[in-house]
Write a structure and sequence with these properties.
The complex is a heterodimer of chains A (357) and B (174). In chain A, strands 1-2-3-4-5-6-7-8-9-10-11-12-13-14-15-16 form a 16-stranded antiparallel β-barrel. With 357 residues, chain A is mostly beta strands. Chain A starts with a helix and ends with a strand. Chain A has 4 helices and 16 strands. Chain B has 174 residues and is an alpha+beta fold. Chain B is built from 5 helices and 5 strands; from the N terminus they run ααβαββββαα. Chain B is globular, with a radius of gyration of 17 Å. Classes of the chains: A mainly beta (357), B alpha+beta (174). Chains A and B meet through α1, β1, β2 and β10 of A and α1 and α5 of B.
Chain lengths: 357, 174
């Protein structure tokens, strides 16, 4: 009799608990649509050759669906340079993200599908409202080849102010590594990717101080191609600090290669900006900024000689980023890039408009 | 066998709890001490008021109702908490804004965040920026968080809605 009573009470408790908890079950199945995009005007002057272009550089649509509070799907499809045409150099359509997410707990989640490599700030936070320049930092093109994505699996979580993410993903094609672009052309982008040598990637960030995101990551890949095998290790550190109108962003990355003439790629950039709307009480955030960049995709080679100097870039940039709303940005920047070999200068003047929603 | 069934049932009770009630009570007791009494109820927002606040804050309410948490000490109300949800990139963010009886914000808390990135909005120091705000305050002065733009904007507008709603609720519950 005693057991029957306890059993009955337990069932009542279970039913009432479910009822109480159901009140706080705020989840509802939902389709989410978002996106971002940016149009650019680029003026480039090098050795008296001038080019002027106007292009809708990126048009990205986000589509997601929440199956339950723990299970969801997220994706991003991107069109670059307005349209895609067979055989044309310009124009690009890609599935940059498409994954199933199982958010078990704040400290543990899993993803499978097309994922971003967790390396650097811009590869993850690449919406135009997140970085100050019109184009993404050149460091985020030549040292960390943003947008770097591929098929694979990940485990992630947050605990005690630390965020972590471990990715196990398709590797790079070592045949396509080059002195002037590092690993950039080695990305397989998920298209029937060779899975014989996977990437191991871990990122850890500390985000417990409001306005500060500081961390680092490591990528290891025993990269293979049809004619080469180039193990590489990419280690990078980064920090993004935004407080009281001040913005300081910095990233440093280094890649070491084995079995290859190319032995090392390395570089960094540092941004400093301030939102003058704080002083003048303007409605639009108005952020003049200055950037210094130094990177070398062939920082060390076995052949030596001019290879290193020919790929060593230094650049100062000044610009302004204006946000009428947090989700819309107008930008302008001016920079002079100097290649160490023969001190060749290239002048850039860019204008841009971007959005996200 | 009976013991096993009982243990399974009790575990089911624990597992089925989604933790929002427990976490909210814990937040309130951390703020006001273990001896306060806490009661919650569902509040249906009057349609006309709901529409006015949505226009003023430029954000829709998550639902037709939200939760009101009364904090009492020795039979006197000492604070009123309003719990609502706003959408982040895809999932709802559950947050609790606790008001002093003068209508200003006593504290603000993200009770549950369901996305992979942007969890910094649950940071206590970041949420302290809302403390003291009332109907005359500009929530846009709250600092942005890099990489969490959508969540930050949603929470700012969500808190603004609750500030505008507070006076009506206070008059009804007092």
């Amino acid at each position: 009799m005693k057991w029957k009573t306890i059993l009955t009470l337990a069932v009542i408790l279970l039913i009432s608990s479910s009822h109480i908890n159901a009140q706080f079950d705020f989840f509802e199945k939902k389709v989410s649509i978002g996106g971002y995009g940016e149009m650019h005007y680029n003026y480039i002057e090098k050795n008296e050759d001038i080019s002027k272009t106007l292009t809708f550089h990126r048009f990205v649509l986000f589509f997601g669906y929440s199956f339950s509070e723990k299970w969801s799907f997220k994706s991003e499809v991107e069109i670059e340079h307005n349209y895609v045409r067979d055989g044309a150099k310009n124009g690009y359509l890609s599935l940059e993200q498409a994954f199933i997410d199982y958010h078990f707990k704040d400290y543990l989640g899993f993803q499978a599908g097309v994922l971003l490599v967790s390396s650097g700030l811009t590869n993850i936070y690449h919406e135009p409202t997140n970085f100050l320049s019109v184009e993404r930092p050149r460091y985020s093109r030549y040292i960390i080849p943003s947008t770097w994505f591929g098929n694979g699996f990940s485990m992630y979580g947050t605990k005690s102010g630390f965020e972590y993410k471990f990715n196990f993903m398709e590797g790079l094609n070592s045949d396509r590594f080059s002195l002037n672009k590092g690993i950039r052309n080695g990305r397989q982008k998920g298209s029937k990717a060779d899975a014989s040598a996977m990437i191991y990637n871990l990122m850890i960030n500390y985000v417990n101080i409001p306005g500060l995101n500081i961390g680092g990551s490591i990528v290891y890949n025993d990269a293979v191609g049809d004619t080469s095998n180039t193990p590489l290790t990419l280690i990078e550190v980064h920090a993004d600090f935004r407080k009281n109108g001040f913005i300081v962003i910095g990233e440093y990355g280094n890649i070491n290669y084995k079995n290859s003439n190319l032995e090392q790629s390395a570089g960094f950039y540092l941004d400093f900006g301030y939102d003058f709307a704080r002083i003048f009480n303007w409605e639009w955030q108005t952020i003049p900024f200055v950037r210094y960049t130094d990177f070398n995709t062939a920082a060390s080679t076995i052949n030596g000689g001019d290879e290193t100097k020919a790929n060593h870039h230094k650049a100062w940039m000044v610009g302004v980023s204006v946000l009428p709303l947090d989700s819309i940005v107008l930008k302008a920047d001016y920079s002079i890039d100097t290649v160490e070999l023969n001190s060749v200068n290239t002048t850039y003047f860019n204008l841009g408009i971007g959005y996200r929603f | 066998m009976k013991k096993i069934i009982l243990i399974i049932l009790l575990l089911s009770v624990l597992i089925s709890a989604n933790g929002i009630q427990e976490k909210t009570e814990s937040i309130i007791k951390n703020e006001f001490g273990e001896n306060v009494e806490i009661a919650f109820s569902k509040y249906h927002i009057p349609a006309k008021l709901k529409n006015e606040i949505e226009v003023a804050s430029k954000q829709r309410f998550f639902a037709e109702s939200l939760f009101v948490w009364l904090v009492t000490d020795k039979d006197s109300i000492i604070a009123i908490g309003l719990m609502d949800n706003v959408y982040g990139k895809a999932q709802p963010i559950t947050f609790l804004t606790i008001f002093s009886l003068d209508g200003s914000i006593y504290s603000n808390h993200v009770v549950k965040y369901r996305e992979e990135r942007g969890g910094q909005i649950a940071n206590k120091k970041w949420n302290k920026q809302f403390v003291g705000m009332d109907t005359k305050s500009d929530v846009n002065k709250v600092d942005a968080i890099s990489g969490a733009t959508i969540s930050v904007n949603s929470i700012k507008k969500g808190v603004r809605k609750l500030i505008l709603l507070y006076e009506t609720i206070e008059n009804e519950v007092k």
